[in-house]
Amino acid sequence: MVFARLRERLGEYKRWALGQKRLRQKEAEFDTITKECSRSCGSEAAREVVEAVCRAYNGEVCPDYTDDQIYTAREKWAEILHTMHKHGKYSSGNDVQILEGGDTCFPVMLEAIDSAKDRVWMESYIFDGSSVAETFYDALVRAKGRGVDVILILDACGGSAFRKEWLEHLRSIGVPVVVFNPMVPFLTDTIGPPCFRDHRKILVADNTGFCGSMNIHQETCSPKMGGDGHFYDVHSRMRGPCVKDLADVFISSLKESGSDIVRSSIPDVPAVAEPGMYVQVLNSCVRRQDYGLQKSLQLLLRSADQSVIIASAYFTPPGFLRRTLIDTITRRKVKTSLLVSGNSDFWPIPGDLMAQTHAVRQFVGLPGCDVSMYGAQHMHAKYSSFDGVYSFLGSNNFDRYSTRRNLECSIGVMDRGFAEGIRSIHEDKKHKGFKPSLDDWYFSNSFVRLGCFIAYYCLKLSGQNIVDGLNIYNTQWRLRKELLVKALNKEAGITVATGMICYRIMNDDRFPTHSSAEQRRTEMSVMSCYQVFMKEQLDGSVATDENAFQLNREVHTKFLKKALKSLPTKYCCLDASRPWFVYWILRALELLGNLDRIEVADDMAGCDSSSYESGDGVDGVHLARLLCS
Q1: Where are the domains of the chain?
Q2: What is the CA radius of gyration of the chain?
Q3: Which of 105, 193, 468, 606 reaches 20 to 30 Å from 495, CA-CA?
């Protein structure tokens, strides 16, 4: 009996000791991520990330979590936020309020415009000629009368209903009205194909910002405000340092429009709450190859392990997001809730709803995926939430056009309270909607399915680069390749190899040692360089391009071997992790199929130095023969 109790006590102590060790390991891993974030983004960014994840995961807000689970969650989200830093500006000390529907949002926006003293910068996809829009027009006129800097950006397609007399009057009183990408090529100052649109919805009024899905038109609000209430939208009011980041997106829209109107960044906006919300402003622009918003969304889908909430109009996700979402649901078993529109805003043929029906069908009935359709209004809101801690809200639809053609802007908020607000409105609309079934007529009727299939693939085809030519990356690459071929056509070996060995060594014959990541980048640069100019690809397959340039192997090999033989007369010893000249020569000979290892070892023997020993630390040098082997 005594031994049994002693054994039980020892077991408890062992579990306690191992648990403490595990916690120390987690703390060390978290500190490592924090230091990495500090090195790449600065100590202030690291502090903001740490505070954000610690507020989201602690014993008070996560009473059911063990200490080990808390540290694991902090580590995961710190790494996610650190990875997303490159996709958009971020800050803490913010306050973001969810504004549901035009009846709630429009009075707040009008109040912000009327109280502005320095600036009113407004950008909207749709600005119609209704009485609702007239209240905003009047507010802009009043602001200009007070001496406020007023700028209005309208999309040429969505803003086509903007009254001509409003446009003329605003310009006559000194308000710049920028019409983004007019749709009549050769007759107007277009900046791209007609399908390139500005889909952002932004308002910056002094130190208050607004961003979301809400356009300025009558369909967003109820009849008591002069609208018809056909659209359901969700917007946000932003205060704090994130307003400056939102203003920078507005300035980028000015630049993208081709307008001669220039504005510099607004002054730093002080924090309004301590510690406040962690907010990142993300945007996308296909012409700049900027897909930061979509890449962040894909990263969050891959990282979520508890829950995913998505609401979107025109749910026809591009392939990479669709595959990621299906993988999240089926393979990683993450509980997912989709809310899409149950009616159309197109007449007389509801092409958007038909294409969406085809896309939604593969999610209906998936275990762990709850699909709902909201039919009381057109579901125009665009938001998402992940694990109940991080949320997206903005103009970006979960569709192909938002990814391929539109200027978009959304905000990412790391805050449990904000995520709970998103979840609350999502649950409300989900319960007011209906759940589709594969037995429903629009899924089971063959003729309807065929029509939806055609609508979906017409939409998919219209979103291809062959139609709009917006993605010019491949064209730029082909042009760059042709220029390289032309430059290296006659003396490829001499031109390339001279650049490889032109670096002069100091008297001690040593290079500064850098990280292994830099060495890997060097290796990849060598491989990609020769991949372009070799008829036979590195994987052994033959290049299909008949016009592909063929390297003059004989001349190039002769030049490289001559350079290799001259090494003993110039260099004594080689650094371990950055042997630029030797690595480039040996790798080039290997790719050319002329690397004689015995011959190379003999040539390198003269580079050995007995005054150094191999493997003597990060800043040390290694014997040339050992390095060569």
Answers
A1: 94-461, 473-628
A2: 30
A3: 606
- For residue 303, give both structure tokens: 């990282």
Minimal CA–CA distance to 576: which of 493, 525, 477, 509? 509
Structure tokens at 163: 């009254």
> Mind giving me the DSSP string for 497-514?
HHHHH-PPP-TT--PPP-
Kindly give, in sequence order, each residue whose CB lies less than 8 Å from that of residue 497, ignoring residues fewer than 6 positions away: 556, 559, 560, 563, 584, 585, 588
Q: What is the biggest distance separating any 2 CA atoms in the chain, rounded to whole angstroms?
A: 97
Overall pTM > 0.90: no
Is 94-461 a CATH 3.30.870.10 domain?
yes
pLDDT for 279: 96
In this prediction, residue 28 carries a pLDDT of 61
Q: Please give the C-alpha separations between residue 610 and each of 507, 575, 598, 605, 623, in angstroms, as whole numbers.
A: 16, 14, 21, 11, 8
Task: Classify residue 574 as exposed, middle or buried by CB count within 10 Å of its CB (0-12, 13-18, 19+).
Answer: buried
- Nearest C-alpha neighbor of 234 from the set 217, 219, 212: 212
Distance CA 475, CA 151 (A): 35
Beta strands in 165-223 (DSSP E): 177-180, 197-198, 202-205, 208-212
Separation CA 163–CA 171 (nearest Å): 13
How many helices and strands in the chain, by DSSP H and E?
22, 19
Q: What per-residue string of b and e applies to 9-33 under the rule 16 or more CB within 10 Å gives b?
A: eeeeeeeeeeeeeeeeebeebbeeb
- For residue 287, count CB atoms less than 10 angstroms from its CB and return exposed for 0-12, middle for 13-18, buried for 19 or more: middle
Query: Helix 553-565 crosses helix 580-592 at what angle (to 10 degrees)?
Result: 140
